[in-house]
Amino acid sequence: MIEKRNKLAIWLYSAFEDEPFENGMNHPADQMIENALRSASEQRILEQFDALCLDVERPSFASSILRCLGRQTEIGNAAWRAGLVRDALATDDVEIRDAAVHAAEYWGGAEIVDTLISHSEPVPWLRDYIRDVIDDLAE
Predict the structure, then answer these.
(1) d(CA 97, CA 129)
(2) Which DSSP string corresponds to the chain?
(3) What's the CA gap between 135 and 34, in Å, rounded?
(4) Alpha carbons 82 and 101: distance in angstroms, whole number
(5) pTM confidence score
(6) What is the mean pLDDT of each run of 10 residues along the chain (139 residues)?
(7) What's the alpha-carbon Rg for the chain, to the nearest Å?
(8) Total Cβ atoms within 10 A of residue 97
């Protein structure tokens, strides 16, 4: 279960329980994330998001947060975003890796492209998707 001390995690968990994440659709968690980014110290909130997005114990929850984060263009810096994508791609969970590629596609940038290029993906459909994202971002 999510730590009771982590209000953001509790709010997000409730939001995804009430309404599952769907690509291309706005989600209440988007606004929660935006509010959290404005109201907390950036370093602290980014550390929280790192932990939540890499939570292999709750991969659906982690991937939903990562997909919502990907839609935030003003989050962290390029190095933080590339690091989160790299760490998510390093997990054993394909759902989290897929969400990392979606976030990478939204964020773009040279560091993201380098991160995607350096990743060796074992799942064929996800490997193809990564190749497509690299091609799109390189244009």
Answers:
(1) 11
(2) ---TT-HHHHHHHHHHHHS---TTS--HHHHHHHHHHHHS-HHHHHHHHHHHHT-TTSHHHHHHHHHHHHT-TTSS-HHHHHHHHHHHHTSS-HHHHHHHHHHHHHH-SHHHHHHHHH----SHHHHHHHHHHHHHHH-
(3) 29
(4) 11
(5) 0.83
(6) 58 67 64 72 82 91 89 87 97 97 95 97 97 93
(7) 14
(8) 25
